[in-house]
Amino acid sequence: MSYEHILLERDGAVAIVLLNRPKQLNALSQAVIREIDAAIDELAADETVRAIILTGSGDRAFAAGADIGELASLESATQGRTLATRSHHLGRKMADLDKPIIAAINGFALGGGLELALACDFRLASDTAQVGLPEVTLGILPGWGGTQRLPRLVGPGMAKLLMMSGDRIDAAEALRLGIVERVYPQAELLDAAKQLAQKLAGMPPLSIAAIKQAVNRGLNMTLDDANMYEAGLFAELTATQDCKEGTRAFLEKRKPEWQGR
Ligand code: COA
Fold this sequence. Notes:
Number of strands: 10
Number of domains: 2
Helix content: 40-55%
Bound molecules: coenzyme A
Strand content: 15-25%
Order of helices and strands: EEHEEHHEEHEEHHEHEHHHH
Shape: globular
Number of helices: 11
CATH superfamily of the largest domain: 2-enoyl-CoA Hydratase, Chain A, domain 1
Radius of gyration: 19 Å
CATH class of the largest domain: Alpha Beta
Largest sheet: 6 strands, mixed
């Protein structure tokens, strides 16, 4: 499949999805959202891909939000709902994907840009990154999952403070709050993301997929239900070839060879 607004690169088992509208600070038009959605489908079907990096082209932005020109031209609440639900659908797809997705935040991640990063499994940021949910300044709210995912990371008070003030925060503050997991000098960010992606790509894929689902789905359950779900996933993994290989390799003091079965 060919794309107009994103670039899709592969480096062995790692795929890199590059948001590619640098002149508009990689603003997320509906066409961009559709292409990311299609790229996730393509990468889901590609068994050689084991980990994905999502980042922005240029050195200024991961993504400076939804395309404000498109927001300004919305003519009805129905169109507004469609715009929100398309991105919710993409977020669900990213959460359900059985491969890890790393956001490499190489500059501004604002509004929908931060919401897209929040839908990834981890967020690595450059020391130049600035993140925030400034939708309030446009007379709307973060409608691509931000009102729900941010409080799950930072708690309801801090999430409301950031969303009601619309304030941007720097990478160090984002790290302190747990919005990003690691911060690197700008020039080292992509290599760090690749290193992490390669490390995850070398892990047993069924374990990686199960950990992702245990956390993502478990967060929406009661603790008892989530533990029950965890036990089911654990049971399935104990019956895999990779579990036999991993435990045997430990006892035989050798490196395991994963089959993904
Ligand atoms: N949608 C559409 N275009 C955008 C955009 C967005 N979200 N964010 C930036 N752009 C465009 C600008 O219009 C400008 O285009 P132009 O050169 O044709 O005028 C270009 O990207 C560069 O942005 P500019 O504002 O000139 O850069 P800056 O360095 O002065 O400011 C930001 C950078 C990120 C602070 C500023 O662009 C901004 O506040 N963007 C909007 C952020 C936002 O509210 N996002 C939430 C949307 S839900």
